[in-house]
Amino acid sequence: MVDTLGLILCVVVHGANVQDRDGAKLVFEKMKDCFAQLEFIWADGGYAGKLIDHVHSLYSWVLQIVKRSDDRKGFQVLPKRWIVERTFGWFGNYRRLSKDYEYDPETSEPMIYIAMSNLMVRRLARMSY
User: CA 84, 51, 18: angle at the middle one, nearest 5?
Assistant: First the structure.
């Protein structure tokens, strides 16, 4: 989960055998206490369906699905969806995150937080002088 600037708010790494919607439930459960003021979440079409009602009933958050147009072929930039893709691109600059080197998913989460902390500290350092 990222904010509108693409900065990490919450990370949950799980195995490939967990469907995206089920993984999202893990993220929302982890976020509920830290981000109580959260009101609105954008997601791609993979999170459509019962998850929208689940999120609204349990957390009172609005989950809006950003869909691409069916009549348009090829690549298309979608509002709000590019933000998380850009964040993934930033992770490509960190060797441990450029490929899946981690044996245990529990070590992947801290590596993502370390990479994002590094990125934010570098931005703050540029702004300070």
Answer: 70
Instruction: Indicate the pTM of the whole model.
Output: 0.82
Of 31, 82, 81, 83, which Cα lies nearest the Cα of 60? 31
Paired strand residues for 40: 62
Judged by DSSP in three states, 111 sits in helix
DSSP SS3 for 108? helix
Is 97:115 a contact under the CB 8 Å cutoff? Answer: yes
Give every CB contact of residue 49 below 8 A, 6+ residues apart in sequence.
Answer: 21
Confirm if 19 and 27 have CB atoms less than 8 A apart.
Answer: no
Amino acid at 105: P
Q: Which of 63, 81, 79, 68 is nearest to 27 (CA)?
A: 63
Alpha helices in 1-129 (DSSP H): 20-31, 50-59, 81-91, 95-98, 105-127
- pLDDT tens-digit map of 7-66: 999 999 888 899 989 999 999 999 998 887 899 999 988 898 899 999 999 999 999 998
